[in-house]
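Reader question, answered in our methods column.
A reader sent in the components of a multi-part assembly and asked whether the whole thing could be modeled at once rather than chain by chain. We filled in our standard form and ran it. Here is what they sent:
COMPLEX SIZE: three components
ENTRIES:
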Amino acid sequence: MADKLATLGFRSFLSHQFLKRSVAAVSCRYANTLSNETVEKHRTSTLAHDKEQKEEKKISAPAPPGLKHVHPEFLPNPTFYRRDRIKEKLERQDMYRRRAVCPIPEFYVGSIMAVTLADPYASGKTNRFVGICIQRASYGLRANFTLRNVVDNQGLEIRYDMYSPLIQKVEVLRLEKRLDDELFYLRDAPAEFSTVPFNLEAVSHPPGAPVPVNTTKVKLGPRPWHERWERRNLRGVQDLGLPEKFYEKAKKVAKPWEEYDLMLKYRTSINPQETDEVMDEVAEGFREIERKRRREKLEKS
Amino acid sequence: MVVSSRSLSKLFTSTSRRRFCSKAEGLSNAEITKKRNELFGREKARQLALITRVEKIEVEHVGPPENCRLLMNKGLSTPFNCAMHIQENLMSRSVLALVNGQPWDLHRPLEDHCELKFLHFKDEDPALSNKAFWRTGSFLIGYTLERVFKDQHYVQLCSFPRPRVETGSFVYDAHLGISDWTPSQAELQCMSRVPAKLQFEDFKLERLTVDASLASKMFEDNKFKSSQIPFIAAKSKTGHSVTLYRMDDHVDISEGPLIASTALINRFNITAIHDIESEDYGSLKRVQGLSTPKQLPIHFWNYGILCERAAKLNPAPMPAQWNKEAMATRNNA
Amino acid sequence: MLRFGIRNRPRRLSKAMGRKEDGHGTGPPGRLERMTIIVNSLVRHERIEGSHQYMDEARGYTERLLQIAAQGDKNHEAMDVANYWLKDKDLIHKLFKVLVPRYENYTTCATRMWTLPVEYPGGKNKTSILELKGNPWPPVVPNPRNNSKSLINVLLHNAKKDYRSASKDGTPV
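And here is the structure of the entire assembly that came back:
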């Protein structure tokens, strides 16, 4: 805010100390936003002009406890200058509506999935890809996942926006978890670890049953690798078999104190109270969609 | 302030204009005070001589600066002596003591093993200190009345009502040897100078419990007090003792604890003298006063407002001869 | 959820642990070490005074430590965190057995900060007091006294009452 006012030629009396060392782009973005406290104060004020203030939808029941792990894309972005409660709420509403049209099943990194896209140039106008999910990233409507497969000896990764209207169908052929949150090391592993046949039969997963954990330890190929895997504390790989100096350098470069940096963890995640509130709202959103779907079904029949 | 000598001439000149009473009997307040003082002193010495063997008592002091246990002398040591062992602050600021929860004069000897607390004006609940201060105010009006007038005006103190701070003034009902007198501001201010000087003297208010017969002897010249003494004595624990207080050379009867010393007083004003009619005692004068303690400073403007209020007639009940019904329904002050 | 406002970014505290022999500063690990020292002494003494910047940073860490410890000493993660943050091991016992039960039902934060006045002409580092609520020390700011029963106040209160009732009646005051 101080920078922006300074460029306009005004002397700023509002010196936000914590913005002193921030990037100019960030401070500009921050300058045009209102803090959540200000917005809430005005929204809930009795003197508000808008008399048709929308009432908060009542939460009929709390969300099941593990919901935030099943649908992590509903959680807000922890980066403070990307927080905007209204934007998050609106996005979540869009996400429920999209899911009503194209349901996205439960999946985790390591699950084998098949995604059918709308493709105007393909025969049958659809494009189906099968692969192992190696990453789940981003928040809100930008949420994406990456599928990896090896086709004709060529490793192939496709990143899909989960809420893209091009997606016609998302199937989970085999629901399972792996030992790591990201499986990028498959790029440095032999092809057999990433190959998934396109005609893989779906393995049904009974609802309510615990998600199986695939404990295979991948054997990586010879170096050079895409990343220094010895610095990554991977659990899903076999012993890397590197000379000692690699591990010593890894220790030198490592930041073991960050594990105990409580405030860093607090700032890079959403606190449990807010997570619970969001997930309760999400569960309520799902219920609402389910009710609508049933109503439409009844009307049709 | 310029004081007209003419206005004061009524009271303070030697040529008497009105004789009301008793010059013929040879009584004057000064002589009577002297007599009472002597009797008091003699009785005090006699009571002290009764203690032949010094016994020790354990006194548990509770409160700031620290809880402690003291070994004091039975019948000789006072709470003030205990304070001397603990802290100078306690000596200078204490008004009353609480001995086993009962209010106790600071210079009254301790009788037995007890728990001791000191009270001052800045406590969270200074009700007892305030009452004691108000009672002392009345006592000091009595002191003033018995010495401020010339010898031809024989003042007979009647009694003072229970202290009530909310009324804004303390009171002494007395028969002044003057009739048809409305005091002017100058006269009241003149009268006030006597007790106002007491703050610079560290006169202790000493307590003594005497037999009713001795009390009657001391107050035989005061028709009001002598009629009251049998009732006072009957109400006491032993059935025949009367509590006396002495300050400087003035002796008076009072039941409750008074403050430790006149050094605790800051200002003192006689604010008004009203004419009152009592059923039992006839026409009397109600002398009203106002005082504030040194520990609680007050701005002169505020004090002036309180003085104006203190000049209004105090709503305390008229002095009355005690009878059995009155004694039965008597509440504690 | 921390029940007090925190800064969006952490303070660097680059000189937290002074300089090493090679002349370099101690960097982020030194910053965290300084925080552990402050949190340790806060848990021990329950009220400490120091530079405002350090106290403010340490406040967040203390609150988080208490929130994590509230999971119980049987919890492996809580014990691990407590072991790192409290260098004196007797304080781990105090944390789980004394502090966690104390703050169990608190709806406010467990710590309190007081900013101390700066001596004229100023320019020195602002000092603050960081204390755990419910500590055994006398309050930093004394509890307000009720002096309404003091003699002067009683007299003035009654004089005021008199004046008001008289002016209401219309009688001349």
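What stands out: Strands of chain A lie at 112-118, 126-137, 144-151, 154-161, 167-174. The first strand of chain A starts at residue 112 and ends at 118.
Send us your own complexes using the same form.
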